[in-house]
């Protein structure tokens, strides 16, 4: 299989390379932000919009899920948040004329960057069977087609309802309610590709699949371990929290195959000193081999166990289960094997141990560097073991901190977007609405693609996101999507998923976070939950991108009426008229949302959801205690002459949305088809800096996948490891290459061969 870059695209991919930077944010970031924002929005709209980001009376930043501090700055956003806002609040428009000028066969040749740059979609569009052009369609007709196709299915399980994590709580709650009333748990979501491994690991070990720390805890920690995360690009506001923690005396260990600029040094744009000098953040950089984290934490656990007085014995006795078995496994950890798995030195690990032992309050933060491997779930469980050993869960300044991606991905799960819902959740939903939800599990993202491929699923509906662009094994996925009867995308902007369709397709344009949402009962707001379990309101203030847009809750309500008709006793019309009525129902179904509307009215800044381990040191697991686990240590074995490739984000992208072609901190300009290779590995493979190479993925079943024409960049990544951007490299990730237990695509461990070639 070969994936070539698009041919019909005027955008040139010609990467230039300069040395990587050692500091993130500061003045260059501000200039870059304003430039991008003004190109999309003009000067006055830029000012009006950016001043409302993350304010209590404003909208939640559509960037990442990092929480806001209670005392907000006037400009409470970061460079990349501003880019996310500009991308949505752009003045560029995709009208029916655009679709008349660009048939599907043309759209299919365009890059994601080009598609996104065309602007906001203004009207519902329909692609009839056999046609090559989308045509404008009325909302009535669009819902009639959708209802007709859904009702025609042999079973509700032939429908798939995907959610990307920007969807509000209100829209997500309605979507899962509709899916279950219709009769399926097929609710795949972006989380299946993201933090599912964290959820799987945490639910079993501490009883809740969410992080246990607040911003306040980060500020009070003695030691913060940041593993597998690049906050300088993906969670820039986290750097302010790390800076504050450092100022109060915290130490930081970063565990990463790449030296990431933001973690090295941070120039805080919110303070004058910060702008000039910046703070060094990382005290110890553990440049680990890809996939070596479980081995590292296992050895640290052994060393803690062997140190007198280092284990919090009272905590272990009172609050945990499985200690003996875990301790036996940890004691068997082997130095030589750990050094081989991690590529670290003995001295580095001993230094890390000293810092661990010197800390009374430890937090571990992580993101995709830990979640997207075959052995991600046992890796994260080993992190939990590490924290449990010294009682670092459920007290101030300590805990687990999976740093979530999309701004409401955590909230969507809380609202019931899950293919494997807990029976108690379904019981509450059924009781409230007088329905009978299916109890059998639905399809996650990877199973959904397999179901489309195998003809088991026929209608695909996406509440946001870019399913085709974000999922693995691009060729397989695109072929699968083309087998669908109907594909439907609720979207703000064009992307690859609109160009790779089923027999019929609908594009349903919707309001974004920045747009003012007025319904029959008046102006509405929605709510979101951040990475630390804080729920708050989000209110757009711009006139909508077009008068023809419907909000996400309105779209779900109308889809439900078109599909379920008089058979539904659910007040869909009332929900659309007044979102407070949706929140009243959420309050009665979802634990922690009691008096939802009243609490939001009392404090628009929001409230924290309950979290038993954090609040009461109570662990709602099967054993009633926090569980130690003892999985065998695994790490990727890479054959001679091959490299282990991770697929990651550049500084100028938001997942599949490409803002620009630069990756400033890594010194890449004007192109994305690059592969970062350690200079010694490159020398051994005979690859000069600037040479062009094909990336050839080798999968265990003997199949190969090829991504041609990547420029080799000699870069200080760990030995044996390589890195290239997603989504260009998704073609290399086999659909079957997933994490055990969580079924998350193993996007960070792809075995590749590099073959000399030409620019693509
Ligand atoms: N600007 C911007 N912000 C974003 C996003 C975006 O695309 N752009 N995406 C959002 C989303 S949905 C998410 S999930 C988050 C993603 O946030 P991140 O997880 O920071 O994103 P990635 O670019 O995938 O970076 C993975 C990091 O893990 C490291 N890594 C890779 N493999 C390993 C390993 O085996 N071990 C260790 N220890 N480290 C490893 C990589 O070198 C890299 O630093 O960001 C969110 N925020
Ligand atoms: N190889 C590889 N693959 C990966 C990853 C990786 O690291 N490597 N990361 C994975 C991760 S962590 C994630 S979260 C997924 C992301 O997967 P998705 O969430 O599906 O992808 P996005 O690129 O975030 O979706 C962008 C699209 O969302 C739409 N959109 C934006 N705002 C709104 C809105 O307010 N409402 C609606 N309805 N639509 C909107 C726009 O049309 C835009 O084109 O990708 C995963 N895929
Ligand atoms: Mo994500």
Describe this structure in words.
There is one protein chain. The chain has 760 residues and is of the alpha/beta class. The chain folds into three domains: 121-193 and 408-607, Rossmann fold (3-Layer(aba) Sandwich); 196-403, Dimethylsulfoxide Reductase, domain 2 (3-Layer(aba) Sandwich), CATH 3.40.228; 643-756, Barwin-like endoglucanases, CATH 2.40.40.20. It has 32 helices and 33 strands. The protein has a six-stranded mixed sheet. Strand 19 (518-519) and strand 20 form a beta hairpin. Helix 9 (196-206) packs across helix 21. The radius of gyration is 25 Å and the shape is globular. Bound molecules: ligand MGD (2 copies) and molybdenum atom. Molybdenum atom binds at residues 190, 194, 405-406. One ligand MGD is lined by residues 63-64, 80, 194, 227-230, 233-235, 255-258, 260, 288, 290-291, 293, 367-369, 405-406, 646, 648-649, 653-655, 748. Its cofactor is Mo-bis(molybdopterin guanine dinucleotide); [4Fe-4S] cluster. Keywords: 4Fe-4S, Iron, Iron-sulfur, Metal-binding, Molybdenum, Oxidoreductase. Residues 120-488 form the Molybdopterin oxidoreductase domain.
